[in-house]
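Provenance

Sequences were taken from public entries as deposited. Structures were produced by running a predictor on each sequence independently, with no templates supplied. The record for Tetratricopeptide repeat protein from Albidovulum marisflavi is shown for reference.
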Amino acid sequence: MIQFEALYQLRRYEEAAQAMAHVAHPDNRQRVWAAGIAAQLGREDEVRRQLDAVAADAPDCDHLALADRSYHCEMEDSREHMLEGIRKALSIWREG
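Predicted structure for Tetratricopeptide repeat protein:
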């Protein structure tokens, strides 16, 4: 598990955000995860920035499917926790 993923699962969102900030060239799946982290922290501008970048690169992206395909969680509650953050991010992004 990548450091930001582990920190997120431990609900250490601020540290997860800091670890994510060190990813030099995030791909779309990492941007979706970053949006989930930002959503958990209530950082709506960051959520929009990340998901706008994904939308610009892949306008038809299914964010939840991308995350579900790309990240393999050993435990169902870890998977649901990840998807919860992404759902929050998508809600913020769609409202904004």
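The chain has one domain: 3-95.
The mean pLDDT is 89.
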